[in-house]
User: Which sequence fits this backbone?
């Protein structure tokens, strides 16, 4: 009897845990520029270590729902410092990101003009102009 009660208790615990484990994590919010307060369109918002992510719309808004989540969410955009925030797994989260601009510096690129690739071909045609005309060749008939 004790064994049967133990098995039933274990099964009840398993059935009570399963719905909790399968709950979706919902996250929504906005991504804005920390200096100007302007929305950042097309920023990437994702759960690190998973394949779940989305880009923000034109107003910087995002809404993400997934069962495959991590306990953190990350927002990133080119020329901004990425941010990571904790997430309540299995529940609803309102997370607004304010990304700080980062300064990217690249070395200067020098572009120098070169010769047009057609010039050597045209020079060869001009050089051989007299040798390739119909008047300079003789035709033979068989």
Assistant:
């Amino acid at each position: 009897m004790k064994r049967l009660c133990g098995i039933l208790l274990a099964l009840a615990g398993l059935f009570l845990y399963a719905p909790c484990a399968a709950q979706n994590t919902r996250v929504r919010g906005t991504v804005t520029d920390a200096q100007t307060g302007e929305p950042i369109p097309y920023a990437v918002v994702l759960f690190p270590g998973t394949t779940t992510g989305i880009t923000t719309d034109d107003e910087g808004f995002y809404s993400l729902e997934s069962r495959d989540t991590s306990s953190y969410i990350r927002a990133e955009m080119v020329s901004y410092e990425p941010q990571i925030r904790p997430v309540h797994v299995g529940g609803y989260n309102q997370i607004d990101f304010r990304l700080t601009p980062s300064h990217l510096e690249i070395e200067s690129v020098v572009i120098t003009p070169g010769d047009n690739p057609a010039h050597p071909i045209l020079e060869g045609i001009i050089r051989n102009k007299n040798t390739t005309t119909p008047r300079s060749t003789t035709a033979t008939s068989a």
In short: The chain has a mean pLDDT of 85. The radius of gyration is 34 Å.
